[in-house]
Amino acid sequence: MTTTRFAPSPTGYIHVGNLRTALMNYLIAAKAGGTFILRIDDTDQERSKEEYVDAIKYDLEWLGLHWDRIERQSERLERYAEAADALRAKGRFYEAFETPTELDLKRKKQLNMGRPPVYDRAALALSEAEKARLRAERGDGVWRFMLDQQRIDWRDGILGPISIDAASVSDPVLIRGDGQVLYTLASVVDDVDMGVTNVVRGSDHVTNTATQIQIIESLGATPPAFAHHSLLTGPTGEALSKRLGALSLRDLRARGVAPMALLSLMARLGSSDPVELRTDMAELIEGFDLEHFGAAPTKFDENDLFPLTARHLASLPVAAVADHLAEIGVPESLAAQFWAVTRENITTLQDLEGWWHLFRDGAEPVIEDEDRAFVAEALALLPEGPYGADSWSTWTAAVREATGRKGRALFMPLRKALTGQAHGPDMAQMLPLLQVIRAKR
Ligand code: GLU
Questions:
Q1: Which part of the chain has CATH 3.40.50.620?
Q2: I need a surface site. Which of 113, 132, 221, 227 has the fewest CB within 10 A?
Q3: Is the confidence at residue 245, as pLDDT, over 80?
Q4: Where are the CATH 3.90.800.10 domain residues in the chain?
């Protein structure tokens, strides 16, 4: 059975970059009728925060990316210790004592000699007595996994065939001197224990994958199918990494981006399929194919989210926004009419409040000097409200008759006088909602 996982570290908010990872894993599981696991990678106790765990869950719920199971690495430390013992028993795990400064020096020397900065495995030569002495002096060492120095090959679901020479990679540290289990070990143990069949993650993890394949195999398990999506860049190809903080889901939500707009964009960006606004999750699942994604960096422009949000909103029935309308004070009796008039004239739901206030309180009239006499004459012909569906056409016909103006010269000054704006919904539909016409006073 297909099982995927989204494995954020709770050290920050979800942003558009890791949303892509979450969404792809979700869609793969959903399409196959499989299981989607939310795995909280919280072995780093100093940096992990409970508020981020809550925020991650909130963001995923907001998007409708429901998980079938939640797991926390901090509750599985025993399993990691067992796996470490198994690797030790297999002779694939060794303790090393170099300080960061010593390692740095080694790397610099290697680079000076034109060699790749790969850990030289000096620790393997230590006798038990030397290790005991170092332990006494420096505390416990780190535990490194001894890579088999062959090529590691896999067929990546996005990148195609990948081959990495393990000899060019340092033996990864899986346990720190203070006993903290590092992500690489915890992640492979979880993937094996939880029966994860497919892993999609960012292409910054490609080298990790190479080492993880060996660790999984040395634990006697079969590696999942891996796919690495390209990293997002800004619209002109600039690195997005520094801006990702501002592109968190909570920020986009605060700016009024609709979940369906975000999901529709992210499910297609970087693939050969066009971005299409989807109505619901079922359509997204149906239209998703990992095979269609390419390796090239993917350009992301947050501005694309707003037209999609506008189109999404325009398609919604009033019931979908009823809560929001009540919140901004639109009476239930006017909700359907208000929504019908405004829904095609907003970018985000936040724009509704402005329209509501305009209808409720009246707009500051905008009247050009050359239109002053015309507007005064026209307003004198406007009967008292309330207005109905025909009021606008009856009134403007009378104004045309009286003034001889027609077309834009007739309508635009009236629109600006009544709404204070040159753009907006159809005047015939708007007039019945206008509860105050300040220009008339
Ligand atoms: N916690 C890891 C990260 O956020 C998970 C990577 C993975 O998918 O294995 O980078």
A1: 1-68+230-315
A2: 113
A3: no
A4: 80-175
Tokens of residue 153, six digits: 């090959």
Ligand 1 residue neighbourhood (C-beta within 6 Å) = 7-9, 41, 183, 187, 201, 205
Contacts for 353-360: CB closer than 8 Å, 24+ residues apart = 353/328, 355/424, 355/425, 356/328, 356/329, 356/330, 358/419, 358/420, 359/430, 359/433, 359/434, 359/435, 360/329, 360/435, 360/436
Domain 1-68+230-315 fold is Rossmann fold (3.40.50)
pLDDT band at 400 (very low <50, low <70, confident <90, very high): very high
Q: Which CATH class is domain 80-175?
A: alpha beta
List CB contacts of 401: < 8 A, sequence separation 6 or more: none
Alpha-carbon distances of 158 from 5, 32, 87, 135, 282, rounded to whole Å: 17, 18, 31, 44, 23
CB 335 within 8 A of CB 320: no
244 pLDDT tier (thresholds 50, 70, 90)? confident
Q: How far is the CA of 215 from the centre of ligand 1 (A)?
A: 16
For the segment 318-335, the average pLDDT, to the nearest whole number, is 97
Per-position b or e across 270-285, b if 16+ CB within 10 A of its CB: bbeeeeebbeebebbb
Going by their DSSP bridges, the two strands 151-156 and 160-165 should be labelled as antiparallel
- In angstroms, the CA 329 to CA 326 distance is 5
Q: Which residue of 185, 187, 189 sits with most ligand 1 atoms within 8 Å of its CB, as the best mutation to test the pocket?
A: 187
**Closest CA to ligand 1's atom 5:** 7
